[in-house]
Amino acid sequence: MGHALNNTLQDVICRWKRMQGYNVLWVPGTDHAGIATQNVVERNLAGEGIDIHELGREEFVNQVWEWKETYGNKIINQLKKLGASCDWSRERFTMDEGLSRAVREVFVQLYKKGLIYKGEYIINWCPRCHTALSDLEVEHTEVEGKLYWVRYPFVDGEGSIEIATTRPETILGDVAIAVHPRDERNRHHIGKSVRVPMNGREIPIIEDDMVDPEFGTGFVKITPAHDPNDFLVGQRHGLLSVQVIDEAGIMNEQAGTLQGLDRFAAREQMVQHLGQTGRLVKQEPHHHAVGHCYRCNTVVEPYLSEQWFVQAKPLAERGVQAVREGQIQWIPEQWVRTYYQWMENIRDWCISRQLWWGHRIPAWTCADCGHVTVAETDPDVCEACGSVHIEQESDVLDTWFSSALWPFSTLGWPENTRDLETFYPTGLLVTGFDIIFFWVSRMIMMGLECMDEIPFRDVYIHALVRDAQGQKMSKSKGNVIDPLEIINIHGADALRFTLCALTVQGRDIILSEEKITTYRHYLNKLWNAGRFALMHGGETTAVADIAAHHKEEMRLCDYWILSRLDNTVTEVTEALEGYYFGEAARKLYDFVWAELCDWYLELIKPTLRGHEGNERKLVAQGILSHVMRTILLLQHPFIPFVTEELWHAFRFGDNSIEQEPWPSSSGYRDETAEEAFHFFMQVVRTIRNLRAIANLSPKQKVGTVHLTAMDDSRQRLVEEVEDQLSLLSGVEKVLCSHTTERPAGSLAEILPDATIYLPVGDLIDIAKEIERLEEELGKAAANITRCDTKLANQQFLDNAPAEIVEKERARREDYAKRRAQLEATLETLRSV
User: Fold this and answer.
1) pTM for the structure as a whole
2) Sign for the pseudo-dihedral over CA of 636, 640, 642, 646
């Protein structure tokens, strides 16, 4: 559903900008998703009894390409079903020939600048996927583990120290014990040596600022091969790295008697040994965050290995500068802080992955001289010694490396293409906050490095789509709303418009199928308004001609709807310019439902039936046609399918509605007409409210309504629109004067500019109605008491599901509203 939101918002902007006359390019495409795709294909092959290592790299890659051809278009087809108006002739894939060339070009360029290097480093390693993971690909989950307190004896036999660890299986890889240099409790031990439990290795006690003197005993075991912080300590102090866990998460030959055990089984064995030898002081529960692979959820292992890295800091500095100088705008602005925090504290980016599916690193190592040749085309010999005994690096690049080049690689770079000149830098990136680090920042860095220019001017960060209870959607919770199912049931337009209407900058979307149903009803309303207009249509007359030649036939409601339409054009355009999608959608909703359908269409029904003469009918038809045409244009970016269908049904043009120009202000804003019509609506609503108080059915006619106007202009207005007041309020006559005594048996309502009297004494038994309402009031009060009793019961609050408690609170609120309505109605009836 997050992808549906993301692509809907992109499509809204693309369609709107095309209608405004911009040259718009939206390039569709997919990345090769290295780890995920290899896992899927590997699993499928394993199900057929095929081991990929027996299959071989070349044949496995062929199998992945076959899988991609079969399933790779699913995402594209989903986008088409959503209505995404991409240029499908330009679809790209990160492993296609053009993008693969761009990847090689950038790798070589960065390598020659010294910004790509190969080195030994602690990386995040997935023992299940057998590949390195970037820091961003590790999901940290809070778990209930244990903290083990272990005794290390001094070499001289004089006592021991205690350390606390969550991973006793790594003790066999310890090469030092560290204390903080200002730790008064322990600093006097600096320079002494202790023995590692189980293998007896002699290791020094050193000082380092990395140590938190408040954690445990203040002593920290240093295991450079199995902890990133320890690795840095080891580098600072020139310590050896002893690796005791292999790439499969199995204890290796350095682990002594634990060799061959899984790391977690080795933990249990180690704890047992420590207990038997008196080295285990205690163990206690410990709640802490543990890294898991984002793809297979395996616990990640900090692993010392040789990997390829991008030296990120120089690239990040340019990225920060570009944003600080205002070259890139972030919407909402709050996300720029997240960007700065990441970029200013960036670590070198591990770009090598131990996979077969992906862009193979273009580096060849010479078996004779050891030189590494990095080249854009496959070399035949070592560039240093000329030897033919060269072998290409087996690792592939991180998928995000190729994705980082997307803004320019898809436009033909490294060739200086027409597309590149026309569309780079791009105008807008719409994305989620969770890939600001993965993707947005890296596109900025690579764009500035390779193009010497920012890749986009605006970054719009949309929010999460949550369920009706505000929880994050997940398959495990069973609260996922499938966009494709919604489209099949309610249509793509209903889903799109709902997502847009609920979008508020900086606030998550709370989505339910009920809300989608609400906006589907809105589309039905628009469709029926279109059918009504078509049924009563005639020759389409330009509004300018109507205003010039048929002004005497125009009524207040005509001036009002044209003014409100003009205002809606302005407000929707301004909202889209600021990326306020929700505000734009809600403005359209309010105009179509609450103004066009609820008021204007109702008022012109007699006109369109010919009750006011042919000239007047032609005027109403022309204005209605203009309103429908404009509203279809305004709504097209949000609801492309319904608007396209209605556009051709009206025969507004032969081309797609998307090829029509975006509406602009037509100059029909009339604040005087709007103010007058607002008074008209107040009168109608007041009469309807008084009818409801008297419990009159909508079909029951009231003879005469008396209205006391405060000034002549209001009296003239009422006289001018008396027929329309009668039409919408269900009364036969409206009498208006400056002074009117209250008729006997009438209900009254005082407005700022008028007082309205509705005689009901001959229509209802007021005393009996009061009795009925008092009885209903008693029931409402009893229901409120019942709810209050339940909500005051702590046992109910503690044991009932949250949704049940919430329903009870909502029920209580409904009863309270009903009680307030009944009390107000009774007060009015008692005044008669």
Assistant:
1) 0.81
2) positive
- Start-to-end C-alpha separation, the chain: 56
- Coil, strand or helix at 574: helix
Q: Tokens representing 80?
A: 């088409």
Confidence band, pLDDT 50/70/90 cuts, at residue 121: confident
What is the three-class DSSP state of 185?
Answer: coil
Q: How many helices (H) and strands (E) does the chain have?
A: 29, 27
Q: Is 143 helix (H, G, I), strand (E, B) or coil?
A: strand
Nearest residue to 300 (alpha-carbon basis) of 169, 434, 140? 140
Question: Are the CB atoms for 758 and 694 separated by under 8 Å?
Answer: yes
CA distance 390 to 461: 46
Do residues 518 and 495 lie in contact, with contact meaning Cβ atoms separated by under 8 Å? no
> In this model, does residue 538 exceed pLDDT 70?
no
Indicate whether 630 pLDDT > 80: yes
Tell me how far CA of residue 124 lies from CA of 127, 137, 272, 295, 587, in angstroms: 10, 9, 28, 13, 49
Burial class (CB in 10 A: 0-12, 13-18, 19+), 216: middle
Structure tokens at 225: 């091969």
- Give the span between the Cα atoms of 274 and 283, in whole angstroms: 11
Q: Please tell me the distance from the alpha carbon of residue 212 to that of residue 207, in angstroms, as a whole number.
A: 12
Query: What whole-number distance in Å separates Cα of residue 500 and Cα of residue 479?
Result: 21
Could you tell me where the DSSP H helices lie in 95-248? 97-112, 228-237
- Given a contact cutoff of 8 angstroms between Cβ atoms, the answer to whether 627 and 601 are in contact is no
Asked if the bond preceding 663 is cis, omega within 30° of 0, the reply is no
Q: Which residues contact 316 (CB under 8 A, 6 or more apart)?
A: 343, 344, 346, 441, 445
Within 8 A by CB and 6+ apart from 546, the residues are 553, 554, 619, 622, 623
CA dist., res. 91 & res. 93, Å (int): 7
Q: Which residue has the tokens 């500035």?
A: 448
CB atoms within 10 A of CB 106: 24
Q: For residues 628 and 610, is the Cβ–Cβ distance under 8 A?
A: no
Measured in whole angstroms, the distance separating CA 40 from the mean position of its chain's CA atoms is 26
Report the distance separating Cα 333 and Cα 459, nearest Å. 10
Non-local (6+) Cβ contacts of 397 within 8 A are 103, 107, 308, 351, 352, 353, 358, 359, 360, 361
Distance CA 167, CA 210 (A): 18
Q: Map residue 685 onto helix, strand or coil.
A: helix
User: What would the pLDDT profile of 170-199 be if each residue is shown by its tens digit?
Assistant: 999 999 999 999 888 898 999 999 999 999
Q: What is the pLDDT of residues 276-303, one digit of tens each?
A: 999 999 999 998 889 998 778 899 999 8
3-state secondary structure 187-207: HHHCCCEEECCCCCCEEEEEE
Structure tokens at 216: 């445990």
DSSP 8-state code for residue 328: S
Nearest to 494 by CA among 645, 639, 646, 647: 639
3-class SS letters over 586-615: HHHHHHHHHHHHHHHHHHHHHHHCCCCCHH
